């Protein structure tokens, strides 16, 4: 059982990744992102997830420096965007992200979106960065099973993480099983479906039983399903509340009732129909 914000899952290359982190998608560059990240670190978060396309890497880096915490205590993720896919352009994009963050290395670097035809050469660039010790782990985001199969077949190193849209309306069962079988850690973006799940009657009922919020119940469900989760918030109280999920455990029956809410319903784009993709 995941017992605290500091608890980690071990990726297939031996690197330890926190089960829980802060996502900063759509968090504005400048004070907004600086505050969010500093509050998260203050309340014990170790994992921060950003991306080139979020345009807030500089603020994330500034918050890390101002937080006073040792760099090696944090787990920082960024991602290469579609317009930078390709071998040389990915290597360049990585340098740009590092520079903006003001860091010497990343803990995790992801291909943000499979796109159409460049993700294999993009992956080869990530393999080089990994072998050169510039990043501790590499992975992908928004990849379906067929993307992963193609990638594994055409590469030396298997992705360590696949970060996808994942919540009770989109349980991604087949993808989750495939990732487990291949030793790829599944990670959830938009775990609360941008707030759309917060008034669901089943979830409300379960939340009352545990005296927790619906958000806390969903995030607990993620963890008990073995899925890393990175809820986003720009409010200090909510950042703190989101992480208050380590003092209770959902029963098997409640876990199943939450999973039964699945409708295969996405809030973001489907990587198969939207090649340019945006969460």
From TrEMBL:
Domain NADP-dependent oxidoreductase, residue spans: 29-262
Annotated site (Lowers pKa of active site Tyr): 79
Binding site for substrate: 112
GO-annotated molecular function: oxidoreductase activity, acting on the CH-OH group of donors, NAD or NADP as acceptor
Catalytic residues (UniProt): 54 (proton donor)
Keywords, ordered alphabetically: NADP, Oxidoreductase
PANTHER family: 2,5-DIKETO-D-GLUCONIC ACID REDUCTASE (PTHR43827), NADP-DEPENDENT OXIDOREDUCTASE DOMAIN-CONTAINING PROTEIN (PTHR43827:SF3)
Family, similarity comment: Belongs to the aldo/keto reductase family.
Name of this chain's protein: Aldo/keto reductase
């Amino acid at each position: 059982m995941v017992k605290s914000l500091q608890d980690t899952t071990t990726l297939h290359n031996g690197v330890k990744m926190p089960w829980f982190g802060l996502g900063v998608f759509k968090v504005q560059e400048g004070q907004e992102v600086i505050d969010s990240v500093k509050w998260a670190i203050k309340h014990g978060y170790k994992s921060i997830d950003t991306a080139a396309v979020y345009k807030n890497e500089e603020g994330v880096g500034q918050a890390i420096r101002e937080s006073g915490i040792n760099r090696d205590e944090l787990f920082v993720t960024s991602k290469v965007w579609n317009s930078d896919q390709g071998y040389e352009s990915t290597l360049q994009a990585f340098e740009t992200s590092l520079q903006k963050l003001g860091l010497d290395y990343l803990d995790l670097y992801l291909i943000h979106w499979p796109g159409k035809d460049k993700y294999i050469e993009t992956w080869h660039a990530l393999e080089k960065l990994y072998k050169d010790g510039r990043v501790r782990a590499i992975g992908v985001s928004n990849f379906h099973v067929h993307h992963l199969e193609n990638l594994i077949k055409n590469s030396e190193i298997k992705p360590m993480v696949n970060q996808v849209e994942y919540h009770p309306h989109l349980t991604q069962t087949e993808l989750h099983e495939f990732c487990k079988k291949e030793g790829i850690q599944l990670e959830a973006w938009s775990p609360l479906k941008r707030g759309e799940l917060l008034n669901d009657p089943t979830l409300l009922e379960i939340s009352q039983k545990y005296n927790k919020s619906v958000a806390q119940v969903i995030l607990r469900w993620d963890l008990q399903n073995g899925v890393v989760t990175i809820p986003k918030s720009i409010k200090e109280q909510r950042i703190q509340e989101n992480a208050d999920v380590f003092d209770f455990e959902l029963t098997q029956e409640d876990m199943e009732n939450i999973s039964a809410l699945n409708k295969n319903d996405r809030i973001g784009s489907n990587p198969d129909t939207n090649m340019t993709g945006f969460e």
